[in-house]
Design a protein that fits this description.
306 residues, alpha/beta, Malonyl-Coenzyme A Acyl Carrier Protein, domain 2, Alpha-Beta Plaits, 2 domains, four-stranded parallel beta sheet, four-stranded antiparallel beta sheet, 14 helices, 10 strands
Length: 306
């Protein structure tokens, strides 16, 4: 059986995430402790007890989700469950790279904290916006974004058929919302995020991230990694570094990534981390078995079925 581990991104966080895994497995506990040592605050306390306003700050959310996903991944490794391929949604790509042995967890947790800060600094709060467009095909959404009169907006996430997220300058995204509704979108809704990710407004953040990546040791992956920016299998450090830099300011090709893994022969997608967002998207892209692991019950179910 070919298994893909897929790792969630920002938006999947919730107060209490990872608590049950932490209390049940020593391997998970050690990952949380390592994160706290690297970042200088109690990551477990923030994940388990919040407050939500603090957990939802981009530079806190990113390392916290990475920690929960990596803790679950460490337990799966201990149980002998290993993937044939890994991928992650946006921030989740860093969890995938930890899983594939490309980057140490300690470096990844520091890198994602800084990535969050760079993203927040790139666009002043209130100037950018993201929105989900449901029920229009990607070509039509691209067409609408290319026709805007009030500024810049572009597709940011091609999540699954009929679900595209757009990002850009607030007035332009608002204009696009109206045009998408006129074009027959079932829903066109602004998202409650403070940063317009995966569009050209993040180019400054990309450049800062490039500087940090130069100082981090990356290794060739032990297992294949499918990236967000191209939906391709990456096999060496140079490709991965370039991909991570481009990822922040390029559209996220999740639908294409899932199809690439399915074409590779993946029989089972296991979502490793908080929430079930990716499992829901995957079922709308390909007919395949999915599983989500975020607590000890779902871990035990996975271990017994595999």
């Amino acid at each position: 059986m070919k298994i893909a581990f897929v790792f969630p991104g920002q938006g999947s966080q919730y107060v209490g995430m990872g608590k049950d895994i932490y209390e049940t497995y020593n391997a998970a506990k050690e990952v949380f402790h390592e994160a706290s040592r690297a970042l200088g605050y109690d990551v477990a306390d923030l994940c388990f007890n919040g407050p939500a306003e603090e957990l939802n700050k981009t530079h806190r959310t990113q390392p916290c989700i990475l920690t929960v996903s990596s803790a679950i991944g460490s337990v799966l490794r201990e149980k002998g469950i290993r993937p044939s391929v890994v991928a992650g949604h946006s921030l989740g790509e860093y969890s995938a790279l930890v899983s594939a042995g490309v980057i140490s967890f300690k470096d990844a947790v520091r890198l994602t904290e800084q990535r969050g800060r760079f993203m927040q600094e790139a666009v002043p709060e209130g100037r950018g916006l993201m929105a989900a467009i449901l029920g229009l095909d990607r070509e039509r959404v691209d067409q609408i974004c290319g026709s805007l009169k009030s500024g810049y907006a572009a597709a940011a996430n091609y999540n699954c058929p009929g679900q595209v997220v757009i990002a850009g300058e607030k007035p332009a995204v608002e204009e696009a919302l109206g045009l998408c509704k006129e074009a027959g979108a079932k829903r066109a809704i602004p998202l409650a995020v403070s940063v317009p990710s995966h569009c050209a407004l993040m180019s400054g953040a990309s450049q800062k991230l490039a500087g940090m990546l130069d100082a981090v040791e990356l290794r060739n992956p032990e297992i294949p990694v499918v990236n967000n920016a191209d939906a391709k299998f990456l096999s060496n450090v140079e490709e991965i570094k370039s991909s991570l830099i481009r990822q922040l300011s390029s559209p996220l090709l999740w639908e294409d990534s899932v199809k690439a893994m399915s074409d590779f022969g993946v029989d089972l997608f296991i979502e490793v981390g908080p929430g079930k967002v990716l499992s829901g998207l995957i079922k709308r892209i390909v007919e395949v078995k999915t599983m989500s692991i975020e607590d000890s019950k779902s871990m035990q179910d996975a271990v017994s079925s595999l």
